[in-house]
Structures are given as C-alpha cells and as structure tokens.
Design brief:
The structure is a homodimer of 783-residue chains. Chain A has 783 residues and is α/β, with parallel strands linked by helices. Helices cover 35% and strands 19% of the residues of chain A. In chain A, the strands form seven sheets. A seven-stranded parallel sheet of chain A has the order 3-2-4-1-5-6-7, sandwiched between helices. In chain A, α7 links the parallel β6 and β7. Chains A, B: InterPro entries: Aminotrans_3, Aminotrans_3_PPA_site, DTB_synth_BioD, P-loop_NTPase, PyrdxlP-dep_Trfase, PyrdxlP-dep_Trfase_major, PyrdxlP-dep_Trfase_small.
C-alpha cells in the first residue's frame, strides 16, 4: 500500500472530482471537456480547474491542452507527461518518475492551491481504465486512493460496455471510493445506457447520458443535472460531516466512556482510513494548526492511528487485499453455521494456527467472536479440566484462578471475574473476582538504563531493582535461569502458593496470564523471567494443588501438570510484540492460547482458543450436557476466517522475507553491548521494535518522562505524575496527547492514554518513513 | 438472487470450466477452440464437450458450430440461440426466453449427462464480459453463480486491458468464483501479459499467454501447461474435499458438540453456499440418493439451509449486494477504533435502528459483537439502573433477575447466570444462576386446533388448556385483555412476585425475556398474553420491589417503572417472526433491546443493545469508573455496521413493498374465521408465516407429530417421544432429520434438532417455490 500523509481532498467551497473511465477510449476527455464547457454557464460562480496528474501520448494530444483549447478561463495542469501512448507504467520506463507518495503530494498541493482561490471545481482526470497501472506500476485506483476524491465514472457505451462499466464500478467500490455519478454516451443499438441507468439507480447512483457524437449545439440537460447533483451531494456530505459529532453524541453509547461532561467536541469524525492514517474532520476544538480556518482550507487531515485501532490494526486500513478476500468469502459462502459442518476457511485457519504456534501441546481450535468470549471459553476449558482431575464439585465450591495484578481479559462478566477487584470492575453488579493475583517485577528504561523494578511490597522477598545492559539481556532467560533473582522468584512464588492452598484452603483451576505485556492494565511490561518462573513453579509442584500423594500420574509431556496454563495472547500474539507468539519469549508451551485482534489484520472480529488434546478430552463423555457449552451464531464465519488466513499468512511471509530486518538491525546493533551475545532464534534477534532504539533512549531522559519501553510495534511512555499515584485517574499524559493531536505539517496523531501512560502502536506494515515522522513529533513534544 | 436447486458442477473424473472474458471480443472463442484442439493430444483419455448456454448473433457464426468445425470428436451444444449480435438481454426481447432457474437446470442437466460418459472436459462459454447481462437481464456472473464452475478467464490484451482484466477478476472474486487460470494474447506493444503475469502470480493464479495471431503451427506450450494445471487443481480440490471431514475431526473443537463417539462421517463438508442452499459434499454416510455413486455422479448437491445458519440467514447466502457492501467498508475504513470516534456506518445504523423500533423509550445504541456480549451489556445496564434507584450495594448482596423457564441469552458466563439452572449450565464451573424463572403457558397447534397449553404445575392457578380459532386470535391481545385467563395470569404473577420479594427477601434488578419464542430452549412459543401480563404487573406494581413508600417519583413515561424491562430479540427480532420487532407482538415498549443474528442479514457478527435515556443516565458521574465498562476491539466495526445498514434497510424496504404479501394472505384468508377480525396494524396482518398454513394444519394431524407451529420464517415440529419427557436428550426428532438429510430429486435439507423438536427456518427472501419443495419433503416424511 502507498504510505502517505495527504488529506482526502475536501473543502467547504472548492470541490475536486476524479474522472475515471470504465475502460480506455470511453471518452473521458470528451466528458471532461463537456463538463468544463458546461460549468461556467450552470455554476457561474465557480472557478474551473483541470488536472491531469499523468499523461501519456504526444504532447500535442495532451488532455490538458485539449481542455484549455475548448474551455475558456480554465486553469489546467499536467504533472507528469510521457510521450508514448501506452499505459503509464510502460511510458515511465524511459523517463525518471517520482515515487507514488510524491505524485500524491503534488496532486494534493495543486488542489489545495486551487482551493485557496475560492469556490470552484477541479476535475482530476485519470489515464485508461480504473485499474490501469500508474507510472510506478500501482493500479491507478490504488495509487489515488489516499485522496479518495469523489468519482465521476465515464461508462462504456460499446458492445460489452455494461460489463466493463459495472466491473469498473465494483473495483472502485471495493477500494472505498464513492461514485457520485456515471456518464455514458447514448448508443441506440447497444443501449447500454438503458440497462446501466436501472442498475445504478438501484445502487443510489444516477446515470447521465450524452448524445453521440456530442457535436456543438447538442442538448446537455443531462450534464446540467449532473452538475447540480454533484453540488448537492457535496453540500450534503459537508453538512453531514459537520453534524456527525452532534448526532453521535445524541445516539451513541460509547464503549468504556464516561459521558459525563462529554460534548460533541470530544468526538472525532473519521471520514475514511488508509494504511496507517485516519482521515479526520478538522475542528477548531482539536486542531491548533487550523487556527486560520477558512473556506478554502482542507476539511480532512491525515491522522496517524496511534492506537492501531485498539491494537487490532496490522496490515493497513482499507487494505485492498483484505477487502477482496472478505468479499470473496461473502460471495462464496455468506455465513455457514458451524456445528457439524466444515468449510475451507475455518479448516485452513485452524491448521495454519496449530502449525504456526509451534507448540506441540496445542491440537484443537475453538472459534468465537472476540477476545472476551475466547477467554470465557478458555476459562470453561481450564476449570473443567482441573475440576475433573481433582474431583471438585464446582457448583458447590469456588474454584479460583491464579493471575497477575493489573490483568485484563475482556468485559464479559465471567472473564472480569478473572481479574483482581479494582475500582473499575467492582462497579459491575455481578462481578465476583475469583482468584489470587500476584504483583510482579516490571521492565522499563529510565535515563538510558534498562532495569527490572521490583514492587515495594515485594522488595523484602526479592531485593531491589536490577539494571541490565540491554533489553535483549532481560530476555536472555537461559542466562538468567540460575541467577539469584531467579531463585528468589521461585521461592517467593512457591511460598505464596503453598500458603494460599494449604493455609487459606483455596482451590485453583488455572493459571491465566497475558504473556510479557499486560495491555489494558496500563502497558505493564512483566519481567519475562518472573512469568517463566511462575509457570515453572506451578508445573513442577503439582502437590501444592492437591492433597493426593500421587497427583500427576506419569503422562505424556503434552499433558498439563498441576494446572492448565492459559495464555491470553489476544493483544500480545501474532507479531504485536514482534514475534509470532508471545509464548516464544518465555520459551514456554501453554496448554490453552487465545488469539484475536491481529488475527484478522484489523478488519473484523474473530477469536480462536487453541487447546491441548488433554483439555479437549476433559469434555468427552457419553452425555451431551458434558460437552463444552459454547457457540455463537457466527462462530467461525467464513468471512472472518478467510480474512484471518490471509492476514496470518501475510505476516508469516513478512517474517520469512525479513520485512522487519531494518528494525531488528537497529535494535541489534545498538542494544548489544560488548561481549554480550544477543538472544537469537532461527528467525533472527528476539527483541526489536518498529520504534527506534535511539528514540526510546533519548525520550527516557526527558524531564516529563518517568520511564519508557518499546517492544515490537508498541511504544509505551510513562509520564511523571506530579499529583502522584499514576494509574487510571491520572491526567499526566493528557498534555502529551494534546500535543500529538495538534500535530504539525498537515498531519496529527490519534493516541490512547491509560492513566499516566501514553502508548503508540504501529501496524506490522508501518514504514520507517512514516514512523520517523511520528518520532519527530514525539521529540518535539518531549525534548 | 436466482433461486435454484442445481448442484455446483463437480465430478470425480469429468470436469467443467466456465470461460469468462475480461471484455467482449477478447478472443474467448479462439481460446476455447485452441483448448479444444489441444486437449486431445495433451489429455487423450478425456472426452471433450463444449457448451454455449446462450448465443447471440447469426446462426452461422454460432460459437458451438465454429468449435465443432475446428475441433474434431467434440460434442457441442447451444441451449439458447438469438440472432441479434447484441447483449443477450436485448436479443432475448424478440424471442421467448425461459427463466434463469430453467437455464441453470438445463446447463446442469447437460453437464451431468456428459459427465456420465466418463472422464472429460466441458467448456462452458459465456457471452460478452463477465458482467454482461444474460437473457433475463441478470448479470452473467450472477446468473451462473449457483453452478460456481471453476473459471478460465480470458484477459484483454488491448490498450486498457490490464484494467479490464483485473476488474473482471475482481467482479468474479466478489461473487465467490475461483479463477483457476488466466489466458491472454501476447501483445508486444502494450505488454499487458507481462504486468498481468506478475499481478496474478501474487494472487496464486497463473497467467498463460498465446501468440497473436494464433495461427497454425504456433507453439502452444502455454496451453499445455494450463491444461496440466487445471487437471492438477481439480485433483487437489477433490482430494481436499475428500479429506476435509477427517482433518476437521482432527483439529476442530465444535461449538455445542459432544465429540464422544463422533466420527468424520458426522461432519458435513460445505463447499459453498448460494441463496437458501449450501453446496454439500455427498457421502454414502449421509445420503441415500447416492447409493449408486460412481465417478460420473455429482459430488456436490444443493442442501437447503434449514436452520438459516443458526437463525442468522436473511438475505441469502453469497448475496452479491452484501459482499460488495462489506468490501466497500473494508476498502474505505478497514476498522476504526470506536471510543471517542464516529464514522458513517456506525452512526447511520444507530439512527436507523432507533427509528425502526418505533419505541419512544430507546435513545442510545451500544455496540458489541454477538448476542451473548450484547446481553452482558444489557445485564450491566439494567442492574446498575436498579441498584442505583434502590440503593443496593451489589458487591455485597445478590441482585437477581426475573426470567422465564427455558430461557437462553448466550454462552458467556454472565448471561448464563440469567438462565435457570439445568443439566446444561450447571456443568459450567463458574455458573451461578441468579434469578427466578416463571414457567409459562405455550402456544401450539395439535390436530388442527390452536391452543394455549398450561403447564401442569400452573393448572391449579390458571385452569386448563384453552383452544383458539386461529393463531391471529391468540395474538389479539386487546380482545384478550379482559378475559378470565388474563386476570388469572396477573393474579398469579403478582402473588408469586410478592412472595419472592416480601417473604423470600429476593432483590430483583431486571425482567429479561425473549419475547414470543424462546429459541434455544426448544422453540418454546409463549402465550403473548402471559408475557404482556408479566410486564404489566411489574410496571404497575413498583411497590413489590421496594419497601419505600414512594418508590417511583413522578417521571416521564419513557422512564422505567419497577424494573428495567430487557427484551432479548437476538433471535426473534428484525423480521425473524415476520415483524420488525418482536416487541410489537406484545404492544410493549421495553427499556433495553438487544438485536443480533439477522441484523447483518447472515454475514458477520454484530450486536446492538438499545437503551433508554434513563438507563444511560444511571452511568453518569464525574468518575470514569462509573462508566459502562464494556467494549470490544472491533466494537462497531465499519464492515459489520455497513452490512447491517444494508440488511436492515433491505428488509424494511421488503416490508414496505409488500414482499411477503403472498405469505400473509395465505394466513389471513385461511386463518380468519367468520366474524373474527384479524389483528392488523398499518403494515398488514400481524401474524403470518413463510410456511403455509395448510402444511401446518396437515402436519398437526400426523401420527408422529405431537404439536406444531409456524410464525414468520420459523416452523417448529414437536415429535412424540415414546421414551417420554422430550427435552434435549430426546432422540425422537432424529428420524425425521435423517429423512430430510436423505432428500429427493437431487436436493436435501440440513436441519437442527432441539431434543424432540425439529425446526426449519427460511430466509426472509426465501421464495414460495423453494419452500414448497421443502414442504413436499416434509409431507412425504410425515404424512
């Protein structure tokens, strides 16, 4: 995808349209000429501009010259001219051509300059058909997509033109374009216009016809009607955008949002999105760059999606590959109810995931719709297995889970119960926390130094904070296995668990953790050694959890020991932290793993719960009521599974092709100290980030920054909280958030804050050029 | 969409390909000729067939004649010939043309006859471009879609041909076609083949080129390679289909399924779906019609989706409109994180739903991913509102809900707790039912008589069963308001509630019901008067629920009284029962309503929880932690919301246009007795079904049938259970289910069973011809 920071061309008074042809030679330039001639009489207050971004063919024939010859008082411009009358990507071979992003910026600049001049209409003509390749080989409709100009489609009136016109319309639609009108020449023999009129009318698109040939004096009522409609549609679009915050404020009950004191100004209007950026409606409220706002300034601006849309975004917004994949699944299946049935996408995804995790324990895939429901399934699985082995009657006694403080597994009440009581979940009337939650040592960088910080209450047992030469060193678990700290961890964990079970009589049914980073809890970066130790102690000490003298009969190594280990990789899995699984950081094989978010690359909800065969067998019985009682209407829906197959495969291919090599090299070179060997596995260095190590180090010295870390696509900045405490109620990060929202150079950044933590998250496809712009903004704000 | 019962042409040895052209005049027939000439030498054991379903132009030019002239030993056929060399839909004007379904059946029959002859290849050539209209005006790719033949696409080598070829490919893809190879002529000037080769290679599709002009003696290595690949792809496809049940059995953990004793034979392979039918892989295990299975018989057969894919299916599988809508949203947005943002589809859907429900109480829309999570939100909403008004500390005391026996609200643990304890949910370790559940009188027809049956334990209070002249009469709540039964209902309900609160000290936070039909509980059809009475008694007696002398300060009529009333319309809403809302049957305005399933017309998961302003205000506070703590990653994802807008609007338009008039007339005429006026509202008769009243009446006399009912798209048949009891453990319905699976005349029926209840569910678009076939099968099985 083309990465760019142009705004989707929209102005209050000026308007720009992209003229696409259903095919080559359908009369685009004739239509443009007719439009240009008609505008001055129909809309006399409008200026007139014509832009041919890329032109092929002899200079004399150039469309912009043709236009300026026939339409008076028009400004015309051609940005790139190639002599060969062939497709631009061939013509460009013989001439140096700037990259797509530069072409886009040049168009954007031209249109914005024109828009400053007052009310007017700009026609931006394309070359060939909608999907003819541009000069660098990108399909034209992909190349111009970031601008997402409203489209006037010139249909094909010839034999076969119905097919060509509708196909062109579909290709534009799946790229998120709005076709505002279709023009086609009348052909009394083929009568395509008759068919197309009915067809497009049903789609809410009007068809306008032109007599053929369009000689002088021919009536152009149709063109006048088109011009009127374009004007009305523009007005309606702008009015609608203007009214959206008010109307959303009226009707939408936002997730996780306290509406008290909220006003429409707190809502951001998102007109579309592409690659890493939203196109957001500028408002005086949330933009300082638009102080001089006037009718000619752009209404939409690119806004970096700094939360990766709640950690889901992976392959870029508006990804045409995923769009086509989803449409194919919709067209081939719709939805197929899943109980007792199998379809290709669900089977392929299941096999792909079991293979991808490289965890010999995992054998079965259960589908649900989101992380919360997938974790509910994991809880049902784990508790049944444990209750079965230990002979507990869970309807009479409480079986609890072991977790970490600050954990979060979703908002359905069952999995809220897996998190420790807090001011938050205690407000949910049916919340009943059932577990014990360990506090844990955390990883961070401060003033250029990586360290493990030990919580105050644990210092008596674990000692004080420990410094490390690099992030890699912290992840070198093999080297750290025999350290003093590791011994302390194990002893602390064992003592605590012994006490909970033997003295306090608790019954535990599972260990449930988010490996490495606890996201919603505030980007809490756990010392991987602590998590690894927790699992080791549990697995190696089955007698903690039962009085039986022989609790764990000799069994295959893929069976769970002591307690089923559940990894909630909803956020951390599938390359979010730079690796395919978060489990691989811990060199541990969990018994149950839950994936969602990046699973579908940032398109639709889907979740998988992978489990071992032994967990699966815990539900085996001649009685139907012993089965795992779970299933949603759209379980394993073909669209979601298809998109997931495409996403996971794409990311695995990126890994195989070394797509992130530049990033990992940055972390490798600077992070590895003399004499220290970086933790590597077959796939390359274990620890890297899309955010540069230099940025992390520099920001760690900033006056406002308490600590910072980056891992994979995640950058987390903990700000000093003068009111103390940090946590969710803190407002320390809101100043930085505001500065990012204000932005600079025509773009800004959407970010999310968790108390005094501001994090940014890239897509796995984010390009270094994009991220360095964001880094620039961060440096400006903090240094 | 074209409704048809043809199989998707697939045979073990014979193969059929559809030759589509990227445009007209790209050389489809030349390619077909070359293929036909090449096949005998490359694949000498294969027979050769050529089918031109629809041909336009003078008879002499007809492609089938052309082919037979150049390729020897070939069987050719043209089904419909029109003389005018124009698009078939124009040519057909002058000649009588059979409907699309007949054309499809003729093609299917021809191909099947050929396939009987042994190994061979059939080429099915199309006319014009992929979306050129067929003789009845349907786009060709839509017309032939039920066959879903693998496609050989002939690309366009001319100027603009890159665009035309890729657009054509995209139009085929979004209709669920598999393009198995692309052929294009080499043009050294435009070099489309070079670009297209790279492009299609990335999609996993190989491009084959032909020299131009393809004179005698030109090398056809490329064609030989294509033929080899087609053969291999066919083998792989069949092998994969053959292996899918085994592999699914190995990897998939099915929802709601006891895997004990399950074998691969219990799994149905679904290759694709279209309109009301799946295309299922035939197997000796689940098909009796294929006893004489041999290599020439069809592998796939149309299977009516009798559970409407778990009650989700509304607008037909593989609906091209929904596919394009979903792709547009994917292309325009991808996903947009929703907290603090607004985008067009989410806002439009919220406004549409608030408007559509015609419930003045509902003002706010909360989005989640499925019925279960939407109900969790409803529970959180209702309990907070009640606990707030009554001053309960819900962390210390148990607040319960009032519900109905047999209710079901999803599988997340929180909403499982809203259902009464049973052998099922008690197996879930964390299940803790929190409520009181009323048993209730049920509607059914038996031996031609509609009646309300009173549960045994309630007879002392409510009297014995009551007969009614028609289903409409049961729904005439105005007439029934003052009946003896209504008085008994109210008195029984009030006494019961008084006892629970005053004597047993229970605290209630909500009434939660599935209006009219409790689906998962076994298609329990509640007497609407009982549900209406329950709500009336609760709302009119706020003092039951609190000791306060002034429990309900004077307040607007849109405020809740006594308890928030929650309607779970996940299954029953949005026309599933023939009306836009199930609430309208009860002439009641709930305070909270949950919709899902049909919301997206049978494509992707999405759920909305609509609530009153007063419920919303219960979360208003200066503290963030008082907000409604709920949100999923893909909350209000643009794809789901866009599809939902399209689905809901389509269904509302169907209602407005009287699409179901034929069905409602059937129920109106026969159901309304002399002197009784049917319950009507502005939109027409209140009570009707897509299943004929005659069928319901006739089956109600069947020896095996205990009772039956139909409402909207739902038909529910309760079978006599000789082992007694009925319920989930019954196997009484499995005999009928087997007979439907066996099918007849080349199609069969997928159905789901709930204990001794077998139900069938139509789409809202199901056509009378389709359903009458299914009715025929039911009559054959039961009468």
């Amino acid at each position: 995808m083309i990465s760019s920071f142009v705004g989707s061309g929209l102005w209050r008074t000026a308007r720009a349209y992209q003229i696409y042809g259903a095919n080559t030679n359908v009369g685009k330039t004739v239509v443009s000429t007719i439009l240009c001639k008609a505008i001055p009489s129909r809309q006399p207050d409008e200026k007139l501009w014509f832009l041919k971004p890329v032109s092929t063919g002899p200079l004399d024939d150039a469309d912009d010259r043709h236009i300026s010859r026939y339409a008076k008082g028009i400004s015309t411009r051609c940005l790139y001219q190639f002599d060969d009358p062939v497709s631009p990507h061939l013509a460009a071979r013989t001439k140096l051509c700037p990259p797509d992003s530069e072409i886009l910026e040049a168009i954007s600049k031209t249109l914005n300059n024109w828009a400053q001049q007052g009310p007017g209409i700009a026609l931006v003509e394309t070359a060939g058909g909608v999907l003819s390749p541009g000069p660098n080989g990108s399909l034209q409709a992909d190349l111009y997509r970031p601008l997402r100009l409203p489209v006037v489609l010139v249909g094909d009136s010839r034999l076969g033109g119905v097919s060509a016109s509708i196909s062109a319309y579909e290709s534009l639609s799946i790229r998120g374009y709005d076709v505002e009108g279709v023009i086609v020449f009348e052909d009394q023999y083929y009568q395509n216009h008759g068919y197309l009129r009915d067809f497009f009318h049903k789609k809410g698109v009007q068809l306008y016809t032109l007599p053929q040939p369009p000689g002088k004096g021919s009536r152009h009522d149709s063109i006048a009607a088109l011009l009127d409609e374009l004007k009305i549609k523009h007005q309606l679009r702008v009015e609608r955008l203007d009214s959206m915050t008010t109307r959303a404020h009226e009707t939408i009950w936002y997730p996780f949002t306290q509406h008290h004191g909220m006003t429409p100004k707190n809502i951001t209007v998102i007109d579309s999105a592409h690659d890493d950026c939203f196109q957001t409606l500028k408002s005086d409220a949330n933009s300082t760059i638009d102080q001089t706002s006037h009718a000619g300034s752009e209404l939409l601006q690119p806004t970096f999606d700094g939360s990766a849309s709640w950690w889901t975004q992976g392959l870029g917004h508006g990804n045409p590959e995923l769009a086509l994949t989803s449409a194919y699944a919709a067209g081939r299946y719709g939805h197929v109810m899943f109980a007792g049935n199998i379809h290709e996408p669900a089977l392929t995804l299941a096999e792909l995931l079991l293979d991808a995790t490289q965890n010999p324990r995992l054998k079965k895939v259960f589908y649900t719709d989101n992380g919360s429901t997938g974790m509910e399934v994991a809880v049902k699985m784990a508790l049944r297995a444990a209750a079965g082995r230990y002979g507990w009657d869970a309807s009479a006694e409480t079986v609890s889970i072991i977790g970490l403080k600050g954990s979060y597994h979703g908002d359905t009440i069952g999995v809220m119960d897996c998190s420790e009581p807090s001011t938050y979940n205690k407000r949910v009337e049916w919340y009943r926390g059932r577990g014990y939650w360990f506090d844990f040592p955390k990883v961070q960088m401060s003033k250029g130094i990586w360290s493990i910080t030990i919580p105050e209450e644990m210092k008596a047992s674990l000692g004080s904070d420990v410094e490390f030469p690099s992030l890699s060193a912290i992840f070198n678990l093999q080297a750290r296995q025999d350290s003093k700290l590791a011994q302390k961890y194990r002893s602390y964990i064992k003592t605590t668990l012994d006490d909970l079970v033997a003295k306090q009589g608790m019954k535990f049914g599972a260990l449930i953790i988010e490996p490495i980073i606890l996201g919603a809890g505030g980007m809490l970066f756990s010392d991987p050694l602590f998590q690894q130790s927790l699992i080791q102690v549990i697995r190696e000490n089955p007698r903690i959890f039962t009085q039986s003298s022989n609790p764990s009969p000799s069994s295959p190594s893929t069976n769970w020991s002591s307690l089923p280990i559940v990894f909630d990789e909803v956020f951390t899995g599938l390359y979010r932290l730079g690796r395919r699984t978060a489990a691989s950081f811990l060199q541990t094989h969990p018994d149950i793993v839950v994936n969602a978010k990046l699973l579908t690359g940032g398109l639709v909800p889907l979740c998988t719960t992978l489990a071992s065969n032994e967990i699966f067998q815990a539900f085996d019985s001649p009685h139907k009521h012993d089965a795992l009682l779970h299933g949603h209407s759209y379980t394993a829906n073909a669209l979601g599974c298809s998109v997931a197959v495409s996403s996971v495969r794409t990311m695995m291919d990126m890994e195989d092709s070394g797509y992130w090599r530049g990033y990992s090299r940055d972390w490798d070179e600077q992070g590895t100290q003399q004499g220290e060997s970086p933790v590597v596995d077959a796939g390359g260095p274990a620890v890297w980030s899309t955010w540069s190590q230099g940025l992390v180090r520099d920001l760690s010295f900033a006056a406002e920054v308490e600590s910072i870390f980056a891992l994979g696509t995640v950058l987390s900045i903990t700000l000093k909280d003068s009111q103390g405490g940090g946590g969710y109620t803190s407002t320390a990060a809101s100043g930085l958030q505001k500065q990012l929202t204000a932005g600079q150079n025509g773009f800004n950044v959407h970010s999310r804050v968790l108390g005094n933590v501001l994090y940014l998250m890239a897509s796995v496809t984010s390009k270094a050029e994009t991220l360095s712009r964001i880094e620039g903004l961060l440096r400006k704000a903090l240094l």
